[in-house]
Design goal:
Length: 672
């Protein structure tokens, strides 16, 4: 293997230590492969079509020579069937949206089916934990909260409400016409925009199926039309499946509230059985948490020579159990191989999404058991222990016991980086509302008032993955720190949130160190971090709800597109990110991506997504690799929105004395 410059691969000291260990032990990682395998330049631009057996057809942008600019522009690029570059690139973009939406909505379907089983007390170990949220969600689905009428009306039990709510939600996946329910949550102006352009989703599955059909060879060949269906499909994710799974997970597992946690590889313990949960669905991790507390299993681990059981998370399964139970996090996407390389992981348990198949090869160099748990996500060499919600706790105990049995098999020297950071997480949009206004007058008015007054310049969503084509976490950190020092509060999910946690940005103390004076004052007054951890990938729906709450609180316009806000995924890599980006754009948000962008193979299509689409939806895409430039563009957009709202100059705060109050009252009486 070629020698790696680890400081260029990751800014994380723990990751650097593990990469050096991997090099010394001859273990290949994604970082080695990234050095030897360069991305296909044509595929990177979305300009390669492989949807029929006549291809693949490649339609790269022509290389222009002096004096040939005009001729090159006139020459139309097309595949064998005549599909233009715009059609090919749009189809590839659309297929990414379809796959990303399918991943979230399939996750959501599983949560809805579990919810029905829980409602009927048929799911071992689970119960309804947040009755207040159950009742709020039931109202959104027109499920009655009482039985009888008038004075005879009595409150329905949580189980009765859930038994009626569950089938209503599940039916939306197969719904063929009409509108999905949560569209009604959006600001009225936003709903009107979607209806005007015909992009309100009819159901959760139909939009994915239709988009895949349209991208089949010889079907939809109008890039505007392809992007229109991509928009409808993406909205079925953000305002459909993702929002449903967030709500139902909160009801079953508890709505997150601020809780302390810890993140990075240093959370692993050499003298404990280490079980790392990796993936995106919290159904099994919830039970693994319960099982890890079982006195009999703890005693069993001690009998094998361990002091106890250490549970840790990876990727969004980690975010889920971190924000509900404070379970420590071993790292984000690019840490998964590195955790195994510590030699201390006795079982790495995966469910779905973002698991590298290379984990099998790395695990073979150590003693770690890779355990798959979902029939949708198998690995050829992994041990498969299928998850069954009817026996969930039994399955979880079996997995923990398997890890314990593997503890004595450690054969490589254990090396755990002594690197970890404290975090405060669990900021659901309901929690933010409570922190700002209390349980009685809970509202986003206080946030809006600070934005209007100029203490907070605006709001930014920084979300998304890690990408081995850039220095791990570096773009996230550069962007977030630049935003904070310019008084922009940051909402974060997924691997981006973990990055912020790793470098100390998710503690209240970070405000005085990293923020401008206005934002620092607000954070210190309320007692919150300047970067608010809002959860996993599906929990980007929480950001949509927070944005809607800002609109409803008043003073910042009548639509999400009016808000001084922007979103970014500076290190994105998955198809889910494209679906998320498209539903944010369609919701009216200026959305920037880093590293690369999948439509640059067509200048016409890219120009539409970066400019033209804003005329329709009020939001638009942008791409910039440099995180400092990304921050400048986001801040410039925020300032533009402030100017449009007439709040571009911060109001001076004046404390009124009694004489000033008398003058005001006298003026008011004279006016009347």
């Amino acid at each position: 293997m070629a020698e790696l410059d680890v400081e260029k691969l990751s800014m994380d000291v723990a990751a650097q230590e593990m990469l050096k260990k991997a090099q010394a032990e001859g273990v290949e990682t994604i970082f080695d492969r990234a050095k030897t395998m360069k991305p296909c330049p044509i595929g990177e631009e979305g300009a390669c079509c492989r949807i029929c057996a006549q291809g693949p057809c490649r339609v790269p942008k022509p290389k222009k020579k002096a004096g040939e600019e005009e001729a090159a522009e006139k020459k139309q690029r097309m595949g064998l069937c005549g599909a233009t570059a715009e059609t090919i690139v749009a189809r590839n973009f659309a297929r990414m949206v379809a796959a990303g939406t399918a991943s979230h909505n399939d996750h959501s379907r599983g949560v809805a089916k579990l919810f029905i089983e829980v409602a009927h007390d048929r799911a071992q170990g689970y119960k309804i934990k947040d009755v207040a949220k159950l009742r709020r969600v039931a109202r959104d689905w027109d499920v009655p909260l009482t039985e009888g009428e008038g004075e005879d009306a009595k409150p329905r039990s949580p189980e009765a409400i859930a038994q009626e709510l569950g089938p209503k939600i599940l039916a939306e996946f197969g719904q063929q016409s009409g509108e999905i329910n949560y569209v009604r949550r959006a600001p009225k102006k936003r709903q009107e925009i979607w209806r005007k352009h015909g992009v309100v989703p009819r159901g959760l599955d139909i939009e994915v199926v239709e988009l895949m059909h349209r991208t089949h060879m010889g079907v939809d060949q109008d890039y505007h039309n392809l992007i229109k269906q991509s928009t409808r499909c993406a909205l079925a994710d953000g305002w459909g499946g993702s929002m449903i799974s967030t709500d139902l997970q909160d009801i079953m597992f508890g709505c997150p509230v601020p809780i302390a946690g810890e993140i990075n590889l240093g959370v692993l313990k050499e003298d404990h059985v280490n079980v790392v949960m990796h993936g995106h669905e919290p159904l099994l991790p919830e039970m693994l948490y319960v099982a890890s507390q079982d006195p009999e299993l703890i005693q069993y681990a001690q009998n094998k020579g361990a002091k106890g059981i250490q549970l840790a998370g990876m990727c969004c399964s980690a975010n889920e159990v971190l924000m509900r139970h404070g379970v420590p996090v071993a790292g984000n996407y690019l840490h998964q191989e590195l955790a195994v390389i510590t030699g201390a992981v006795d079982a790495l348990v995966v469910d779905v999404q973002c698991e590298m198949q290379a984990l099998e090869n790395v695990a073979a160099c150590y003693h770690t058991k890779i355990i798959t748990t979902d029939d949708r996500a198998r690995m050829p060499k992994a041990l498969h222990i299928p998850f069954d919600e009817h026996h969930a706790l039994d399955v979880a105990k079996n997995i923990i016991r398997t890890a314990i049995d593997n503890f004595p098999n450690r054969r490589a020297p254990v090396m755990i980086p002594q690197v970890s950071s404290p975090t405060i997480v669990g900021f659901s949009y309901e929690t933010i509302q409570y922190l700002l206004g209390g349980s009685i007058r809970g509202s986003y008015y206080t946030l809006n008032d600070n934005v209007i007054g100029g203490r907070i310049r605006g709001v930014a969503g920084v979300v998304g993955c890690n990408n081995c084509r850039t220095t791990q976490d570096s773009s996230h950190m550069t962007l977030i720190k630049e935003l904070l020092k310019n008084d922009v509060i940051v909402l974060s999910t997924g691997c981006a949130a973990m990055a912020a946690g790793k470098y100390g940005l998710m503690t209240p103390e970070a405000a005085s160190k990293y923020c401008g004076p206005g934002l620092a004052e607000v954070c210190e007054t309320v007692g919150i971090p300047p970067v608010l951890h809002m959860g996993a990938c599906v929990d980007n729906s929480r950001i949509l709800m927070a944005a809607t709450a800002c609109v409803k609180a008043g003073g910042l316009g009548t639509d999400i597109s009016d808000l001084p806000a922007a979103g970014a995924a500076p290190e994105w890599m998955s198809e889910k990110a494209i679906a998320i980006g498209q539903y944010f754009v369609a919701s009216g948000v200026y959305t920037l991506f880093g590293v690369t962008y999948p439509t640059t193979g067509s200048e016409i299509l890219t120009d539409y997504l970066f400019k033209g689409i804003e005329e329709e939806y009020g939001g638009k895409w942008d791409f910039v690799a440099d995180p400092e430039e990304m921050a400048r563009r986001m801040i410039a957009h925020i300032d533009l929105k402030r100017k449009a709202l007439g709040i571009d100059k911060a109001r001076e705060r004046v404390l009124f004395d009694m004489e000033m109050r008398r003058q005001l009252e006298a003026a008011a009486e004279e006016h009347h």
